Every structure is written in structure tokens, then in C-alpha cells.
Task: structure prediction
Amino acid sequence: MKLSFHTFCRFFSWLLLVALVITCRPKVVEPDLLADGKPRIISVDFPGIPKEDIIIDQKNFLIIIKAPPTLLTNVIPVIKVTENARIHRGGCNSQNNKGTECFAFGPSTIELTYTDEPRDYPKVVTTYKLVILASGPIELADIAAPIEYELFNGSSGNISIPCRNLYGNKLPVQVKLTHRESGEVVVVDNLNKITPSLAFGWDTLANHLRVTLYYSSLMPGLYDCEIHTEEGEILTLPQPIKTVKGPVQVNGLGGVEGKVLPNGELIMSGNNLFPGDFSAVLVTPNDEVIPLSDLRYSRYGDQVITKLPASVTFGQYVFQMRDISRNETFCRRLRLRRQDPVPFEIFTLNDWLGACSIKGPVNLSINTTISIAVNAYDAKARLKLTSISDPNRKYYGKAEISSQLSSMGMQRAATPSDVPPGQYYAVIEEIDANQKVLREGPPFWRIVQIN
Result:
């Protein structure tokens, strides 16, 4: 079909008009989000991270960071905000952790308040979420020597494994330890036991994978270590984990069904109780030493069992233990009871449970507040001292027996202000509001000496 010259000119003119309309249409201008009046971050710089690896998405309040393979120890950000903004305290940019928390736990945030908000209770108006992107998969950094872990030494109970690309990746799902001598396998699953290290507290370096071993049953020796990632990769450490013995600790003394009885077994529970490093004896109230032999040790150093010698009868003793390698001695009170404690029985009367001798009386002064432990709770009570030389002479002091004080180990009593020097029997009496005695506990097993 042929077009006439006139028709062609009309069609061409229409095309020119359409082109002109399209060309002259005003451009859609995105609003300036920094001018909307809301507190905003203008720029943020982290030491050791190139500027081009940090993007601020003002529309979605995101700070997108490509993390380098290794962070500097101090990555506290330099943050520029709008004039009406103030950075809220306690964010991931904290001085306490040198800024490493911005990368270690996600999603981390930086919060802003208005400048005129009260500093004590500011209202957070704007929250930027940090999105951390890794530069590559997690890798092991150089490990030139075995990583040493001291068993139950009172510290954090962690080992720290140097890594690259730790931040921005998903954490490993499992750490597997294999004891070289026995072949025993210990598995640490990621239930808050595998975390990035912070430049904070006991963890002084970033770029380390922190693995909590405190709750794992370990033996002294060398363990081969594998790290299992969520993607199915296995990272094998080139050096072993070297576990060494820590200080001897005895945390509990008991027997079969909880009771320690003559001719029965004494069960010692604790940490680092290994053959050759630990010895124990019983000491009588007359400072006579009774050796404990035939000690049977658990493989993890958490329990020792022995049969009590025939000379051990019902009564009070001191359990004395010695850390041979450190040449240190520790003591703990032990009582072999005929019956269960009775109400208002005194367990301790200003005498230390860790004393290595229980010979002689307990020395007290007049009109003094003392700590006690009594088999009673929430009771109105008093301390009664009865003279040994003249049982008709009795003296009284106030006692505080409450559940709150008991749970804190802080029951208290006051020695009478009118008691003369001498030796006394001590009991705790329950009384009513009129000072009438409702019941009385048995005498404390040690004599009290008032000086």
C-alpha cells in the first residue's frame, strides 16, 4: 500500500510530536531522603575497610559492608550524622568491644535519636541495620603451634581458632575433637558454643572462632580438630588442641545416696582430680590425720571414690586435699551424721567451713554480729549462750533467720552485750512476739569461747 505525499507528511509530523512530548516530559526526581527531617547517618567509615566497600541504603535504612578477610582489632566506626541526630549509646559501635560486635553478631544495628531527646531515656527514632557480606568462604589462618587449653582453670573455658573470612559467613555447625591416644571423639555443636571472638574481655583479638569447651568431657593430651561448615566443608587444623591439667578443685563431698557413713564410700566431685596430682586425708577435731587410700579416679578428673577407713566413725572431720603439682592445700568440713538435721540445728557459728583445723572452741567477742547457718527459715529467733561452769547463767542475743538471708548465706546473730568471758554452749531458740520459747535446736557441736 502506497502512501500519498500528503499522508506521509501528516504521519511524520505525528512522530515528531510524539518524540517532542517524550523528550519534554519532566524527569522523575527521587526525594532527598537526607532532607526529610528524620535523624539519619550521612556516612560511616570503619578502619581497615575501603570506602567503596561500604554502601548506605537510605531508603531501607541499611548499611551494607563487604568485610575484608581479616578485621583490624579496633574497628570502631567514624559516623557522620545529620544535624538533628545523636548516636544512641550501647550500639555495636561500642568502645567496650572495639566495634567488632558490628560484625560478629547479626543483625547488628546503629541507632539514632533526636538531639533534643533526654540522654537518660532517649527515644530511638532511626535504626540502621548492618548487612555484612563476606569476601569468601571461611578459611583457617596460619596456626604454627598447638592451641593450648587448660582444663577448668577458672577462665572462660574457650579456645580461639584463628580464621579468615569469619565475618559475614554463617557460623560452623560443629567442631569435632579426637583424642589421639584413646581415639575418643568429642563433638561441640553450635548451640551458642561456637561464636566469633570479640576484641573484648578475655578475648583480646578479632578474627578468631571461639569454641566453648567448658561443658565437654576432656582428658589431658592432644586432640585433632575438625571444623564442619554449614555448606558441608571440613576444615582440619594443621596443629592439635593441647589440653593440660588445671588446678585441683573439689566441689562436693558425698556418699551413696548422698550420705557419707562409716565403712561407706566417700565420693569427691570436682575438676582436675587425676592420679599423681591429688592426695586427701581426714583430720579429726583433735588434729589426728587419717589417710585416705585406694583412690579410684574417673578418666575425666571429675570424680574420686574411696572407702572410708574403719577408724572413721560418726562425727565432725576436716577433709584436707592437696594439689601436689602446685603444692597447695585446701580444706572442707565433713560431717558423718546419724540422723538428718533437726529444726534450728546450727551448722556453722562464725566458723569457716574451709578451716583446716576444728580443734578447740569457737572464739567470739561480746556484742558482735556474727554469721551463722541454721536449719530454719523465716522464723523469729534468738541466740542463747549457756555457761558451762554454771548452767543457770544464760545470755541472749538477737538472731535474723529469714529465707532471703538464708538463700544468700547471710543468716546473722548478735552475741549478748552482757555475757562475761568464759565458755558456753550455743543454741538457737524460736520465739514468739512475747519472747516465749516455741522450740529450741540442739547445742552447737563446738564450745563457744567468749573473750
User: Anything to note?
Assistant: The mean pLDDT is 86. The chain is about 5% helix and 40% strand.
